[in-house]
Amino acid sequence: MRRSKTNGTIASTEEKIKLAARKVFTEKGFAATRTRDIAEAAGINLALLNYYFRSKQKLFDLIMMENVQLFIEAIKNVLDNERLTLNEKVALFVEGYIEMLKKNPDLPLFILQEIRRHPEKFANQLAAKEIFLKSHFFKQLQAASKGRINPVHIVVSMLGLTIFPFIAGLFLQNITNINQVQFDKMMDERKKLIPKWVDTMIKAG
Amino acid sequence: MRRSKTNGTIASTEEKIKLAARKVFTEKGFAATRTRDIAEAAGINLALLNYYFRSKQKLFDLIMMENVQLFIEAIKNVLDNERLTLNEKVALFVEGYIEMLKKNPDLPLFILQEIRRHPEKFANQLAAKEIFLKSHFFKQLQAASKGRINPVHIVVSMLGLTIFPFIAGLFLQNITNINQVQFDKMMDERKKLIPKWVDTMIKAG
DNA sequence: GTCTATAATTCGATAGAC
DNA sequence: GTCTATCGAATTATAGAC
User: Model pTM?
Assistant: First the structure.
């Protein structure tokens, strides 16, 4: 059975299930998600979910992989581009992530939650250990901050300034009384602000 | 039955269950936690848990309340103290939170996850909407940043710089190849760094 | 208060008709 | 491919002995 998606294209049943699964899993995490919820969100029957994906775990693994992919896509073209200055890399990184996160605001909480739940799965899989430390970006950062500050501080700060607002989105909208539109507008402003702040952090004594 | 806690004091069975519940719930969240795990961690039988707390949900609500309390305790003496300058408030806030989070690193992920899962429960309960916006801290911040930057940006940044490292702890330790001891040491360094950075953000044009 | 045993429920997965 | 009906495992909660 086929039915139109929001963008007017056609979604097969398999795609409909995957879309629903991505939404529900990312919102609630693995344990709190019931396959029945996914089936309902997809507008199909529970049996059909197992017909296409065999098990809840297999469907989840698929979604997880796609979500991790989103995170990697957003930076892989930046980290090792030797033609970009450090400031340019930071600016591109921040802009890319904010755009991605505006479309997928639940992603960071979902991924960090799953890493905490199953650290062993990510310990070697990502193997980002070396990829990141050996990146052109990190080398530039080391050179620029040498003798003043541990470059890891800068990386943590850049990530926190960019990602944290999305993790704490609802909480922040609550305590500061701003709505979704204002929130997105603020995130656009941060595309300019964060690179400036990061630059200051690197140069400060 | 009574048995010694780590600090040498005596813990009643009820307290032992609460301690175990706090540990397991905070680590794994509501859905992924089995009451059996809590019972085992407490060294008691499953039936006893229900004898003391009636249901998993009631026990969870209790733990949740205590955890939220931890978050509020850490700031309530700072936000409205009219004898502190803005810089002093920031410094005390950052130091208090980092100390609290070093002891309870799972707390932010746990709380933000639950807020996302049940926004309605926190919408009015926290009611932090007004408490925060009307605080002496926020007024000082507005005055200090007037005309240059939206003070909400500063608040989000301060929170992100402080809290995000703990949320992403395992991930960061992975990609940067640092261990737990180095991580805690970095967080101590941030007690000095973050207030300096925040001050720069406020004053920058 | 604490335990063992079990009832009651929820949920993932499958059988089988169409 | 899709559905209804149901099984079986896991898990919360309770009954009842001590």
Answer: 0.94
Query: Mind listing the domains of chain B with CATH numbers?
Result: 1-54 (1.10.10.60), 61-203 (1.10.357)
Q: B172-176: long-range contacts at Cβ-Cβ below 8 A with a sequence spacing of 24 or more? A: B172/A152, B172/A156, B172/A159, B174/A122, B174/A123, B174/A126, B174/A128, B174/A129, B175/A126, B175/A128, B175/A129, B175/A132, B175/A133, B176/A132, B176/A133, B176/A152, B176/A155
Q: How far is the CA of A55 from the C1' of D5 (A)?
A: 19
Q: What is the pLDDT along chain A (205 residues), one digit of tens a residue?
A: 454 555 667 789 999 999 999 999 999 999 999 999 999 999 999 999 999 999 999 999 999 999 999 988 888 889 999 999 999 999 999 999 999 999 999 999 999 999 999 988 877 655 677 888 999 999 999 999 988 999 999 999 999 999 999 999 998 988 888 999 999 999 999 999 999 999 999 998 6
CB contact under 8 A, A164 and B160: yes
Q: Nearest nucleotide by C1' from A36 CA? A: C11
Q: Would residue A6 be called left, alpha or beta, if left means φ above 0 and alpha means ψ between -120 and 50 degrees?
A: alpha
Stated in angstroms, how far is A32 CA from D12 C1'?
Answer: 15
Which residues are B3's β-sheet partners? B11
**Phi, psi (rounded to 5 degrees) for A178:** -105, 155
| CB nearest to B112's CB, from A126, A133, A171 | A171
